[in-house]
Write a structure and sequence with these properties.
The complex is a heterodimer of chains A (about 600) and B (about 130).
Chain A (H helix, E strand, L loop, with lengths): L1 E5 L2 H5 L2 H14 L7 E5 L11 E4 L3 E3 L7 H11 L8 E2 L6 E2 L11 E3 L13 H6 L4 H9 L2 H11 L11 H10 L6 E6 L8 H8 L1 H15 L3 E7 L3 H16 L15 E7 L8 H8 L23 E5 H13 L1 H5 L9 E8 L5 E6 L4 H8 L9 E6 L5 E4 L9 H6 L8 E6 L4 H15 L5 H18 L5 H17 L3 H5 L2 H9 L1 H10 L13 E3 L9 H5 L5 E2 L7 E2 L9 H5 L5 E3 L1
Parallel strand pairs in A: 1-2, 8-9, 8-11, 9-10, 12-16
Antiparallel strand pairs in A: 1-3, 3-4, 5-6, 12-13, 14-15, 14-16, 17-20, 18-19
Chain B lengths: L6 H20 L6 E6 L2 H5 L2 H14 L4 E6 L11 E4 L6 E3 L4 H14 L6 E2 L3 E3 L3
Parallel strand pairs in B: 1-2
Antiparallel strand pairs in B: 1-3, 3-4, 4-5
Helix pairs in contact in B: 3-4
Classes of the chains: A alpha/beta (about 600), B alpha+beta (about 130).
The complex binds flavin mononucleotide (FMN).
Flavin mononucleotide (FMN) binds next to strand 11 and helix 19 of chain A.
């Protein structure tokens, strides 16, 4: 028998170590220390109800356990085989105590569809993929379905693009299929430029065949015989696994000529990108593949009309593709039963920031932020207060406390001033300054703007300068209006999606954290203590004994004072490095 | 290598792969322990490769019959390197923060005797199966 105790950060803070110790002592008392092991585990993710103790092998799940409960657990459960009912998890929906964790709803929060094989199969062995039903969808399409039926199935499934825009995938395929040409192309967008996002990389590294299979299905559906994967050269492992996978598929006759005896030919090659954010935009991506500058062009024409080499080209994202084989295998009805009315299936998120369980998660559309943060993510680091979640990267915005219970899907996120984006999800606590966050994303956009159109090239730079002014304490209320106006103009007039969405981080933070902007402007105050220019280091003359430690360690000689007399910091010279505070043994220095 | 020329070929291959995997999982193959190591960029950066090399060498030295699979990201970035160990006939168990020392404990305690060691990662997702 094993007693598993959650040793995650949240539970540890509430004494899981002490519980473990008490359990061990009691076991020893009863002479059971050799039969029953006490184990500290990683986070169960269920920190709201922590500390958690799980008993194996019967899967009993005890919540909110206290150190003094240890004896009862041993005496009742371990020795007499009777569950300690009062510690069992009670299901909020029907108030019933749940004994077996397999029946807890919480265990079903995550659902792996796109990541179904990641972490389970050997990505470098095609046979393991085949063992998991791999290439069965392709066989089904080639053997039993017409291209129209394949497109129809994808349409019915309700699958929407996972690369950011959320365009209906089946519809995109249909448009590409209806544009006739001697040659068409299927392109997989593996540029993944959002800072902090790594969903696509994980899929390519963990399950490359799912993408190859889906692209081949895509080729069959629209009448293309060539596939290209545009991947950034900064993803060497993903590239290597893709190349291995392509070789193996060719060897097994699953790429190449006359696939599965159907007469259909299809092959896939890689194209490398140099890692520019704008090259993730589909027209820029296509130009980059053609050997031209990676700059976007006006749409229409859409790639489905005139794309790579001016031929009809279907561009889809890696995660979009990873969903395709399973939709064919299990049917559109199965897929569309998951998710919300207009957003079907699941979404993979890279959960990052001030959250305990940083990681890759896949959740059904319609899950709430609260569930993601507190039941999967294990809550905010250090028990701090939740402040905001950034989704959609540089094109997205911030969601706040008032959105905690909003179901996450394409349309709700847009209504909340953010967007799904490709799946970055950065959690922030009270130590994040929202003005600085907006500035951070703007800095990224300014850096990554290709410079072709002036709204993006000049407008974003101006936005950035105004934000800089505000964080330096020189902002005026008029600047807020200017930010709003300029943001609106950029959104309306920029050439491509980069500029059309780049003001979102600014707008959504102004909308959701207006007070914080006003504080920066009027009170010259940054409540999170992030904007250095607004901080003042002050020496309390009552507490200062004049030991001179601060003055001696100040790198810019901003502190003056006589020995044994209170010292003073010259605010003009101070660079807010914090060296003085660290040295002061008397707690005389504070930040205001 | 045989080319897969038809749906029937594909089905036959799936069947044979599955049988192979089943014998492993059900432990019909006497005492075979399966170890999967999460080897995506993040896992490797955290030292998964060294852990895998060490475990392969040590299990062999200690006379344990084990197969190792390099697999993709398991999603537990906060606890890399992560490995999943399946003892014959038992449910898989995932361990996080596996360094050489932890790997040694896992071999000695869990693989040999079925005793869990600290650092078990509770799996909290549903996997779709037909
Ligand atoms: C600035 C910018 C960057 C983009 N970066 C990516 C990217 O990294 N990966 C991606 O799949 N789509 C990206 N897109 C979206 C693509 O233009 C395109 O919509 C997408 O690849 C279509 O695939 P989907 O329908 O499967 O999502 C980006 C768009 C813009 C405007």
């Amino acid at each position: 028998m094993h007693l598993l105790i959650c040793g995650g950060t949240g539970c540890s803070a509430s004494k899981s170590q002490e519980i473990a110790d008490n359990l061990k002592i009691t076991l020893k008392d009863k002479g059971l220390e050799n039969e029953v092991q006490v184990i500290l585990t990683g986070c169960f993710g269920f920190c709201e109800k922590g500390p958690i103790v799980k008993i194996m092998p019967d899967n009993t799940f005890y919540t909110e356990v206290k150190p003094e409960d240890a004896r009862e657990i041993i005496e009742e459960h371990v020795i007499k085989g009777r569950k300690v009912t009062r510690l069992l998890y009670s299901d909020p929906e029907n108030d019933q105590r749940v004994a077996d964790s397999k029946h807890m709803g919480f265990y079903k929060k995550q659902m792996r569809i796109a990541l179904r094989n990641c972490g389970f199969i050997d990505p470098q062995n095609i046979e393991e993929y085949i063992g998991e039903d791999g290439y069965a969808a392709l066989a089904k399409c080639l053997g039993e379905m017409t291209p129209e039926q394949v497109i129809n199935e994808i349409k019915l499934s309700g699958l929407r693009g996972r690369g950011g825009g959320g365009f209906p995938t089946g519809l995109k395929w249909e448009i590409a299929s209806k544009n006739h040409a001697d040659q068409k192309y299927v392109v997989c967008n593996a540029d993944e430029g959002d800072p902090g996002a790594f969903m696509d990389r994980s899929i390519l590294e963990g399950d490359p065949h799912s993408v190859l299979e889906a692209m081949t299905i895509n080729g069959y559906a629209i009448g293309a015989t060539k596939g290209l994967i545009y991947i950034r050269a900064e993803y060497p492992l993903a590239i290597q696994r893709l190349l291995t996978a392509i070789d193996q598929s060719r060897e097994y006759g699953l790429l190449g000529e006359d696939i599965l005896g159907s007469g259909f030919n299809f092959d896939i090659e890689l194209r490398y990108g140099a890692g520019a954010f704008v090259c993730g935009e589909e027209t820029a991506l296509i130009h980059s593949m053609e050997g031209k500058r990676g700059e976007p062009t006006f749409k229409p024409p859409f790639p489905a009309q005139s794309g790579y080499n001016n031929k009809p080209t279907n561009v889809n994202n890696v995660e979009t593709y990873a969903n395709v084989p399973i939709i064919i295998n299990k049917g559109a009805a199965w897929f569309s039963s998951i998710g919300t009315e207009k957003s079907k299936g699941t979404k993979v998120f890279a959960l990052a920031g001030q959250i305990n369980n940083v990681g890759l998660i896949e959740v059904p559309m319609g899950i709430t932020l609260r569930e993601v943060i507190y039941e999967i993510g294990g809550g905010i680091k250090g028990g701090k207060e939740f402040k905001a979640v950034q989704t959609g990267g540089p094109s997205g915005g911030c969601l706040t406390k008032k959105h905690l219970d909003t179901p996450i899907d394409y349309d709700n996120l847009i209504a909340a001033g953010s967007m799904m984006g490709s799946g970055g999800m950065v959690v922030m606590d009270e130590t994040s300054c929202m003005v600085a966050i907006a500035k951070f994303y703007l800095e990224f956009t300014v850096e990554e703007s290709c410079g072709k159109c002036s709204p993006c090239r000049i407008g974003n730079k101006r936005l950035y300068e105004i934000l800089e002014k505000i964080t330096k304490g020189n902002g005026t209320m008029e600047d807020l209006d200017n930010l709003r106006n300029l943001a609106g103009v950029i959104k309306d007039t920029a050439l491509c999606g980069l500029g059309q969405t780049s003001p979102n981080p600014v707008l959504s933070t102004i909308d959701n954290f207006y007070d914080e902007y006003v504080e920066h402007i009027k009170d010259k105050k940054c409540r999170a203590g992030v904007c250095k220019s607004l901080m003042r280091y002050i020496i309390d003359p009552e507490q200062c004994v004049g030991c001179t430690a601060c003055a001696r360690n100040c790198p810019v000689n901003a502190i003056k004072g006589e020995k044994k007399l209170p010292h003073l910091i010259n605010q003009e010279l101070c660079i807010k490095c914090g060296a003085c505070i660290e040295r002061c043994k008397f707690g005389a220095i504070s930040i205001q | 290598m045989t080319k897969i020329k038809s749906l029937a070929d594909l089905r036959a291959m799936k069947q044979s792969v599955q049988e192979k995997l089943d014998t492993r999982v059900k432990g019909t193959e006497e005492g075979l322990v399966q170890v999967k190591v999460a080897m995506a960029t993040c896992g490797i950066a955290a030292g998964a490769k060294q852990v895998m090399d060490y475990m392969m060498e040590e299990t062999e030295k200690r006379g344990i019959n084990a197969v190792f699979t390099q697999t993709g990201c398991m999603g537990y970035c906060h606890a890399e390197p992560t490995i999943e160990v399946t003892r014959p006939g038992e449910d898989p168990v995932v361990f996080g923060y596996v360094d050489i020392k932890k790997a040694d404990q896992i071999i000695e305690k869990y693989i040999k005797d079925g005793e869990l060691v600290d650092g078990v990662i509770p799996v909290n997702y549903e996997k779709i199966k037909d």
